[in-house]
């Protein structure tokens, strides 16, 4: 079997523009799963959001969530890379100074302030696992053992670029984006690439037996690790530049096309 592990991003990749999984993608993933290929959702989203879609597909493989800061395999927590409260306060200070809307991933939910976004929009963007709070300082203190990721959002991509430059001066964090209008901050050592490496190592899968599919900056590390790097047709220029193959867009079942080409039709 040429590829034994397929790590798939969600937004802009597996999910279409309406945030749904097309039937063809589900059917193809199920076929690969039945062949013994591990198809792992590898996302910047929180674990509850990813689990909902994995269960919808009817597979039971591991989930890499919060850009690799949280990895769940069955009942085993393979990785829980927590942001220390001191670092969290530093990140929050940067967000406040630059006036970007802020959301914080914990292991079980996403916390947000009502003044930043209403509950309806919070659920629309992040799913059902959201919690409204009055103060981030109190919310962080209550979740100090479960802080996984900060997300900053702005309608100005220039502001996001400026914020990312400031955040990257903090020694112990990783800073990436999944769109030009956000920045995502995890503790150093948290990345999709490192998470995929850990997953492959656990199951004795060689690097050349790994295929990764993604569309944006936060996917670069796993695409660079992969034996076969697949960029979505709707992906960013920098993702396409390092890809071995550019598949169809997320609205045209690019994930299914790639799995069919490299796994189902390739004699695996």
UniProtKB/TrEMBL annotation:
Pfam families linked: Hydrolase_3
Keywords annotated in UniProt: Hydrolase
Recorded superkingdom: Bacteria
Gene Ontology CC terms: cytosol
InterPro entries in UniProt: Cof, HAD-like_sf, HAD-SF_hydro_IIB, HAD_sf
One GO MF term attached to the UniProt entry: phosphatase activity
NCBIfam families linked to this entry: Cof-subfamily, HAD-SF-IIB
Protein name as annotated: HAD superfamily hydrolase
Organism for this UniProt entry: Clostridium bornimense
Lineage: Bacteria, Bacillati, Bacillota, Clostridia, Eubacteriales
